Every structure is written in C-alpha cells, then in structure tokens.
Amino acid sequence: MTPIGKTVTLTVAQAIVRYLAAQYIEIDGTKTRFCGGGFGIFGHGNVTCLGEALYNSRDELPLYRGQNEQGMGFAAAAYAKTHLRRRFMFCTASAGPGTANLLTSAALAHANRLPMLLLCGDTFITRLPDPVLQQLEHFGNPTFGVNDAFKAVSRFWDRITHPAQILQSLPAALATMLDPADCGPAFIGLPQDVQGWTYDYPEEFFAEHTHRIRRQAPDVAEVADAVALLKNAERPMIIAGGGVQYSGAVAELTAFAETHAIPVVETIAGRANMLVTHDLNIGPLGVTGSDSANAIAEQADVILAVGTRLQDFTTGSWTAFSKDARIIGLNAARHDAAKHMSATVVGDAKLGLTALEAGLADYTAPTSWTKNARDQRSTWDAYVAENTRLGNGPASYAQAIGEVNRLCDPRDRIVAAAGGLPAEVTANWRTLDIGTVDVEFGFSCMGYEIAGGWGARIAQSEKEPDSDTIVFTGDGSYLLMNSDLYSSVLTEKKMILMVLDNGGFAVINKLQNNTGNESFNNLIADTPTATNQTRVDFEAHARSMGALAETVSNPEGLADAFARAKAAKQSYVIVMQVDPYEGWTTEGHTWWEVGTPHISESERVKEAHIDQESTRTQQRKGV
Predict the structure, then answer these.
(1) What CA–CA distance (Å, rounded) separates 561 from 381?
(2) Structure confidence at residue 2 as a pLDDT band (50, 70, 90)
(3) Helix or strand or coil: residue 288?
(4) Within 10 Å of residue 97's Cβ, how many Cβ atoms?
(5) pLDDT at 136
(6) Which strand ranges, in their side-by-side order, compose the sheet holding 209-211?
(7) What's 152's DSSP letter?
C-alpha cells in the first residue's frame, strides 16, 4: 500500500508519464498495462519536458518514432481496434503544425469510437514570450489556438494551466477511453512552460490501479418491450456491428441466432463477427454489402441491431429496410440505440443478448424465412466465387482479394480503408476466423491503410506474433501516406502490403461516371493538368524504404508472390496493376444518397439525377 499523505515532487510531464505507467487492465485473466506505449515526433513544444519524462520510462512505455503525426494517430487507432479497445496508445506532437497534423486521425478515432490519448504541446501560459514560434494569434481571444480545433474531434478535451489539474484530468481522460458508450480520443494540451513546472503530488495518485471496462445491464422494461417485438416477428433479422466484438459477445450472438434460427447480417465494422461457413451468416449489409443480406433486410419485419451506429453504408441511406419494419437498438450508447425511433435496449451487448434470451423462451423464426435467407446466401456465395475467379476478366481488386483469401492463414489480419477496396473487401472477403478484418469505413480515411497496418501489427505482435497483418491499398492511398512502411521496417513489425494500382482515384471516377459526369481529375489519364503521364514505380519506392518488393504482371502471379511474402521476415510489398473500369463488384449494392445537380446542361447528368431521386421514395425519414 502507498502511504496516504506522502507527496512526491515531479514536473507535470513526469507526473503524466508515471501515472500512465501505473494504469493496468485485465484481459483474459492477464494483467497488462492499459497504455501500450506511444507514438511521438518531438519538436520544441514537447521534447525538453515530455521527452525527458518519456526517456526515463522508455521500458515501461515504449515510444515509437513516427514519420508523420497523422500516421501516428492512424497507427494508434488501429492498435486500439486490434486490442478491441482494451488497450490504447498515446500520441505526442509539438505545438503548432505537428499537433494540427493529428486532427484527421483524431476525427477517425472519434468516428470509429476508438480510444487514443493525445498529449500535445501548446503555447506558454504566462504569455511572456508571445507571440511564439508557430502560434496562431487571435487578437480578440489570446487563449484561442490550434489546439482548440480538437474540441470538435475529441470525447474529452482539456488544457493544463496548473500542475494540480492533472489529478482530475488524467483520470477523466482514461475514464472516457474506458467507457463503452463514450469511448473516443482524449486530448490534453500541454503548454510548454507548464510541462516543466513542479508540484507536490500525492504518492497514492501513482499507485498501480487495475481498470475494468464497465458492462451496463439493460433496463428490465426495455428488454421486455424488445422481447415482445421479437416474439411476434415473422421475419426477424439481426444486424451485427462492431460493438459485438468490443463487448466480447460473439459467442452470445451466435448462440442467440442459433437458438432462435434468426439470420444474421454484418456491418462493415462488424465484419468477422461470424465465420463464412456459418449457415446463419447471410452476408454483409448495405451499400457495400451483398445481395443476400440486402434481400432479407428489405423483407424483415423486426430488426435487432446489436452494437452498430447504423451508418448510411449499413442502412442504404435508410432505404435498405421496409418502412414498416421495427428496429430494436441494443447498444451501450443511448444515442445509437435510439436512432430512427428504435425500441431501445441500452446496455452491454453480451448482457443484453443474455437478457433477451431469457425472455424469448421457445421462440423460433419461421422455417421458411430462415431457409429463404440461407438460399439467398448460397446464391451470393456462387457470385463471389465467380467474381473472384482468376481469368474472369481484366485484373481486378476482387481477383486479388480472392487469391489472398485463399492463401492466407485464418488468423491473419486484414486492413483496408479508403477508395474502392473497402467495398471490394467487404463484399468478397470470406471470413476465416473471428475478429480478423479491419475495414476502416467510419471515417474512410485515405492514408489509414499503411499507418494502420503498422499499428495493427504492433498490437498483433503482442498477442499473435506468428500471424501476419495484410494491408490492401490502392495507388492513391499509397501516394497520400506511405512513410510508415519505413516505420514497419525500422521497428521490425512486418506487414504484407498489396498495392493495387489503377492509375488514380478509380472508384470516384466510377461515381463520377455513374452520376452522368465525364471523367475528370480522378484518373491520372483524365487529368488535364497532368501533362507528363508518368506512372509510379511502387516496387522501387518500397525497396527504397527497406521493404522487400516485387511487381506481378497479372493475378496468376499472385500465388507465388504471396508465398514469398509470407516466408519473408520483413515487410513485403506486392504491386499489381488493376483495370480502373472493368472488374468492379457490380452486385450487392443498396441505394446511397449522394448530392446530384438538380439542373445541368448535360442530358446524362439530368438523367442520372432523375434516376438517383427515383429510389428516394423508399427512404425511411427518421422513423
């Protein structure tokens, strides 16, 4: 026991680091640090004080040197997601542009409800040296600066203006990151002078503490209302979201579905809640979904939505469901549970499913309904088999995905994020094991792929070192942010990177064409200002950063290349050109609301607008 009343004199930075090193969490019976370490790029705003403190704790809290602050944030988000929000990383950046670079990754963590602690330099509280390097001056409000921008993308925000404040702010930040409902990024601004100020902190503040993630039991009356709806359902369906995995409720979800013969469809975040071979897994739902899931979704009369925020790609902008369908929202967050006038069951997914099971007794979905769902899935499986078959057309994303799926190990982790690959992976990937797919489509952020792959591999190496992290990226995302391929080489965190080059932003070109517009400024070939039509040598670029790399000329060459990548001890890049026009997955799409011009000189644009609006009649308007 730490003596009560004793104090220790520390700088603010030293106190923060000591506190983080003392926080633990129990995972599967093993006590481990809640904070797995951090990512940092030092500058004048954080190197002298926070850098000093981190150096002295470099064994307890390993610090990974980033190449770009945004990439650090992406890596931290992927790390937390791989650990199912049970561990987090901090990111530290200097005052000014370094911190500003973290805004996008904070937004990604916020959208995806992922824990991340941002420890960022700030201007001087005393203001004696103002205006300082990289300071924004707001003449009417001298307290207002770059760090205030994080208020929009943080679940917790504070600026430390006195050393004693961290006694309240640090526990509040950790409580936010541990909360199943409010989980997200926590931001703490650290003025450069305050970081070095000292305070006599209570020693018990730094005592080891083991945290638990709260499991909130649902309200008995809400459960009863949900049970009544389910008992009367003739065509029930379960939507399994990412919250199922965060709750550790995969077994309960599967047992619930099996006991009552209820078909299950998955969201993008919920991919890999069920194996592809499970006969109640009817496929992914929504805009980037499957014909099977979408077919039963539009017929379902009662929908149990578990651990999902019902994003537009899940709901088809709210056209995927019958207007008469009743939705039950089982979610730890009341805001998500209550969407579109759902019958709410606010609480933990594991406890909520157990409570529903207790009340549902002998209910079983009609045999004809379950058979219809299974038949729909069989038809979809046949489509995917043909869609991913080598030789079915020009080289495509689907063919590459199919080959990797066929050759990878069941526990390998798949990472994708932006462009056309999230849709193609979601539709065509056949889940081999639970919790092995990370398609970042909450913020759908270009650049997450490689940085996120690095963070995912750091987490994976802590618990499944013999598995691989496999990243799918297009040429656009690679060019946007590739430097953490070098980070993976430096830190010996091997990942396999599939660079599928279609000559630009091909999926947005497809959307451009589908809305009647001419190809313009998406594919490099259709960019008028790109007067020197040069293709990037991605293999040479990857090799320059220390990775092993090769280019295959066609999908038939992927098998041998992938075998070499699996056998390699360091990051391995496989490059292949794919067709920007042909080979897209054409089935499995619900309507998606995008803004289209109401008037245009182009007949094609006008026709596309009319066609787009024709489906709006199916849209549920808030109910």
Answers:
(1) 26
(2) low
(3) coil
(4) 12
(5) 85
(6) 30-33, 23-27, 209-211
(7) G
> Is 202 within 8 Å of 1 (Cβ atoms)?
no
Give the 3-state secondary structure of residue 201.
strand
Q: Where are the alpha helices (DSSP H) in 316-411?
A: 334-337, 349-360, 367-387, 397-407
Reply yes or no on whether the pLDDT at 104 is more than 80. yes
Order of strands, edge to edge, in the sheet holding 548-551?
437-439, 413-416, 469-474, 496-501, 572-577, 548-551
Q: For helices 421-428 and 367-387, give the axis angle rounded to 10 degrees.
A: 120
Distance of CA 142 to the CA centre of its chain: 36
Q: What is the pLDDT of residues 72-101, one digit of tens each?
A: 999 999 999 999 999 999 999 999 999 999
Contact of 160 with 188, CB cutoff 8 Å: yes
For residue 132, the 8-state DSSP code is P
pLDDT band at 29 (very low <50, low <70, confident <90, very high): confident
Which of the four pLDDT bands, split at 50, 70 and 90, describes residue 622?
confident
Output the CA–CA distances (angstroms, integers) from residue 540 to 502, 547, 548, in the order listed. 17, 10, 10
Please choose, from the candidates 451, 457, 459, the residue with its C-alpha nearest in 3D space to the C-alpha of residue 89.
Answer: 459
Query: 66: closest CA among 96, 35, 101?
Result: 101
Contact 473, 439 (CB under 8 A): no
CA distance 77 to 70: 11
390-400 residue pLDDT tens: 999 999 999 99
**Residues listed for the chain:** 623
* Two structure tokens written together for 546: 């220390």
Burial of 160 per CB tally in 10 Å (0-12, 13-18, 19+): buried
Are 24 and 32 spatial neighbours (Cβ–Cβ below 8 Å)? yes
Q: Sort 208 into a burial class: Cβ within 10 Å, 0-12 / 13-18 / 19+.
A: exposed
Q: 552, 597, 602: which is closest to 577 by C-alpha?
A: 552
Buried b (16+ CB within 10 A) or exposed e, 24-63: ebeeeeeebbbbbbbbbbbbebbbebbbebbeebeeebeb
> Going by DSSP bridges, is the β-strand pair 281-284/264-266 parallel, antiparallel, or unpaired?
parallel
Under 8 Å between Cβ of 63 and 38: yes
Report d(CA 484, CA 78) in Å as an integer: 13
Average pLDDT on 11-33 reads 95
Tokens of 393: 């057309």
Can you read off the two tokens belonging to residue 240?
A: 């399994």
Of all residues in the chain, what percent carry a pLDDT higher than 90? 96
Can you tell me the distance from the alpha carbon of 478 to that of 421, in angstroms, rounded to the nearest whole number? 13
Global pTM reads 0.97
**pLDDT tens track for 289-325:** 999 999 999 999 999 999 999 999 999 999 999 999 9
1 has pLDDT over 80: no
Mean pLDDT of 538-562: 97
Report whether pLDDT(595) > 90: yes
